[in-house]
Structures are given as C-alpha cells and as structure tokens.
Design a protein that fits this description.
Layout lengths: L1 H27 L5 H20 L3 H21 L3 H20 L4 H27 L1
Helix pairs in contact: 1-2, 2-3, 2-4, 3-4, 4-5
Length: 132
C-alpha cells in the first residue's frame, strides 16, 4: 500500500507544481502561436508527469520519451485543440497505467477511458455552473 500512496503523493505534488507554473509558462509562451504553444505544453507536462511518478527514473525516462513520441503523433493529426489535449491526456494515462503500474493493456484502456470520461463530465459540470 505504501507504493500506491507514494504514487498518489507524487501525482498530487506534480499537479500542484504544474499549477504554479501555469501562469509563468503562458507568459513565456506569449510569442509562440497558440497551437504550437498548446502542443509543446501538453507534451512537456505529460512526459514530465510520467517521469515524476515513476518508481524508477530509468523507466520514467523511457515512458516519458514514449509519451513525447506518441503525443507528437497526436499533435500532428489532431484536428483542433480539444482533440489535442484529450489525445495527449489519454496517451499519458494509458502509458502510466500500462507501463509504470504494469496494468494489463485492456484494463489500462478501460481505466483511463473511465477516468477521462468522469474528469471531463466533472469539468463540464463545473464550467456550466460557473458560466451560468
């Protein structure tokens, strides 16, 4: 149970750190076109997250580089920013479940699909309540 708790703490710490860097990153990327800035940000955060939560740094590096490669393909084929973000988040989640936590591939896909769906539903509900 300790390894699972440590993974949760690492994920939570990474989320807090990434949240603190959001505004400075937007300011630094002011001269970069929107699509390129979003692509770079999503890819970098996904890869850094996988590296940060890995129990072994070498595995985290390999999986993070894999996320950059797969996420780069998603960035090239995504028709818009929403598809880009969803694709990179999905790739990051599947790589986390399948390669860092060693979940069976089908189970990793199901888990990440459920997490992404619930997260999007919650975000949509919060946004709808905020904009009303």
């Amino acid at each position: 149970m300790t390894a699972r708790r440590d993974g949760f703490v690492a994920s939570l710490s990474f989320a807090a750190f990434a949240g603190l860097l959001t505004v400075p990153a937007w300011m630094a990327a002011e001269g970069v076109p929107g699509r390129a800035s979003l692509s770079i940000g999503c890819l970098a955060l996904g890869a850094a997250y996988l590296f940060a939560v890995a129990s072994q740094r070498s595995r985290g590096l390999r999986v993070g580089l894999g996320a950059l490669a797969l996420g780069g393909v998603v960035a090239l084929v995504a028709p818009g920013p929403t598809a880009l973000v969803l694709g990179v988040v999905f790739v990051t989640g599947v790589l986390r479940s399948g390669f860092l936590y060693r979940t069976r591939p089908v189970r990793a896909l199901v888990i990440e699909t459920v997490l992404l769906s619930v997260g999007l539903t919650l975000a949509g509900a919060l946004y709808a309540g905020h904009s009303a």
